Amino acid sequence: MVAPDSARSQANKPDQMARSKQSSGANAAISEDDIPALIKHLPSPEESQKNAIYLHSFTDLNQLGLQQPVLSAIESAGDADAALGTYGPSKVLIIEFNTPQLATENDQRIITRIHELWKLGQPAPTAYRRVGNYSVFVFDAPDEQTAKQLIDQVKYEQVVQWLGDNPYIYKEAEKRYINTTLGVLIAVLKASGYALIGCLGMGGLIGGLLFTYRRAQQKGVRAFSDAGGMLRLNLDELSAETNPARLLRERN
After folding, report:
1. What is the CA radius of gyration of the chain?
2. Which residue from 97, 104, 93 is spatially nearest to 126, judged by alpha carbons?
3. 3-state class of 82 per DSSP?
4. DSSP character for 222?
5. Is the pLDDT of residue 37 over 90?
6. φ and ψ at 247, to 5 degrees?
């Protein structure tokens, strides 16, 4: 069994309402200290809280005042919540189903219904997407791109807590171990690569400086030789070892 963290508002304080609508079966009383999590997941929640409508465990979405044929495909069985936010001409509707099975079944019906509306040429949502257990609709948006940008801001943030022993605890531990090992291995390889590049770079720099220094020393020293500044190896023994004209003659 799992217990989601979606907050269920139980307060009913009309004097603390933020311009929210009240109706039978709707938990629309929203105070600054008790705001349903579903409203916080609307795009720009600080702005949407001023005019948001929240339905708790609804069975009928007609309370929202939306004349949208696609909503007829939704079957909540009293186990779903809804939040409606207005953004200029656009309206964003989030429906949270409390079980994945209910979310999947409704998602399939909604997609089928949207295709039917397209074929019949009847009004349909500007954009629709399933986000986790949320079904997110955008109505009356200026264009599809704007509608998709609004949906992109909706994040499904649900924490699942096992009331008993978690049957997947060993798999999760194995996954964490693998991720940690891979992280360490990648870090070691990166460090080794950086060290190798650093050593090669430092060696090349020191070698280049030493070579330049030795060349500068050679240029600053004048070389002397008995061959007029040019050295030649007499490997073929064809050249005279000495100049006979410069040899001293024997004296009588």
Report:
1. 41
2. 93
3. strand
4. -
5. no
6. -80, 150
Give mean pLDDT, residues 232-248: 62
Q: Read off φ and ψ for residue 93, nearest 5 degrees.
A: -115, 125
Measured distance CA(46)–CA(42) in Å, rounded? 9
Residue 20 has pLDDT above 50, yes or no: no
The beta-carbon contacts of 160-165 under 8 Å, at least 24 apart in sequence, are 160/2, 160/3, 160/4, 161/2, 161/3, 161/5, 162/1, 162/2, 163/1, 163/2, 163/3, 164/1
pLDDT digits (tens, 9 = 90+) for 181-217: 999 999 999 999 999 999 999 999 999 999 998 888 8
Q: Where are the alpha helices (DSSP H) in the chain?
A: 37-40, 45-48, 100-120, 144-152, 169-220
Least confident of 26-40, 52-66, 149-163: 26-40
Give the position of tokens 């997110």: 136
pTM of model > 0.90: no
Mean pLDDT score of the chain = 78
Q: Helix (H, G, I), strand (E, B), or coil: what is residue 187? A: helix
Given a contact cutoff of 8 angstroms between Cβ atoms, the answer to whether 90 and 150 are in contact is yes
Cα Dmax for the chain: 148
State residue 250 phi and psi, 5-degree precision. -70, 140
The residues, ordered by sequence, that sit 6+ positions from 117 with a Cβ below 8 Å of its Cβ are 69, 70, 123, 124
Distances (CA, A) of 199 to 30, 187, 191, 195, 250: 64, 18, 12, 6, 67
Triad 40, 45, 49: Cα angle to 5°: 90
